[in-house]
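task queued by scheduler; priority normal; single chain, no ligands, no partner chains; default sampling; output format set to structure tokens
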Amino acid sequence: MNTKQQGILFTVIATIIFGITPAVGKLTYSMGSNGIQLAFLRHLFVVPLFLFIVLYQGQSLKLTFQQIKDVLKVGLIGNTLTIVLLYSSYSYIDVGSATVLHFLYPLFVCIINFLFYKQALSKKQLLCLMLAIGGVFCFIERTSASMFGAFLAVASGIFFAYYMIGMDHSSIRYMSPYVFNFYLVMMNSVVIFLLGMITKSIVLMPLKGYFLSMIVAVLTSLIGVVLFQKGICCLGASLTAILSTLEPITSVFVGILFLGESLTGMKIIGCILVLLSTFILVKSQGETT
């Protein structure tokens, strides 16, 4: 198996994992959990695992002052809010719909670069913007809960775009991914726990709820992240991003098969429009690099 084939395999497995775990996480909601608690447990359970990996590899945990600022800024604003908002959206809309709306983040990356880094929007990017907006409207139903859930999912995409840009334009890009993720999950565990205590979202669950939360944590925050990073190393960011469109498709079908979620004609059209906008956007970026 050559490098490209390995990269495809790593990326496909990672995106399938990312597509399945929202459904696993939502199963805990019927056991008393919620978006904030799931986000807290997702990070807490992998803190010792990342610490073990860093120490086993003999890497230094020492950070410069600039790295500390970047980890706090990018981690809190980008990563923490992304996960809290996305997981919270599962309480109001289907996991498939939430994942598709979250996948607007490549478009938001272009918009943020345009607004703050003076990168002009091409005709293809403007076309993607119109397709994406049309796709979003296909998911919004005439209920306040659905509109609020859609808002949370779209907002998670905005903050994830900030997270990606923040990593690209900061000292984090030169850090070891394991060291960065160790500090990230440790920080998120503390911050989300405090948020959970303030909002009274930290509750007791049956043992099965904690077991399922641990599965989500290990699969997403450890295995999925590592495989996805390896996929980027083997294929490059553009091709990896195109393959990652398997994630929302997986979430939609897993939600239908295991959570009994519905798939209407409008949602199908919305899926097509959002994924088409993502595919065109990422492919056009790959052609210009």
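post-processing summary
- The chain has one domain: 3-287.
- Residues 3-287 form one domain.
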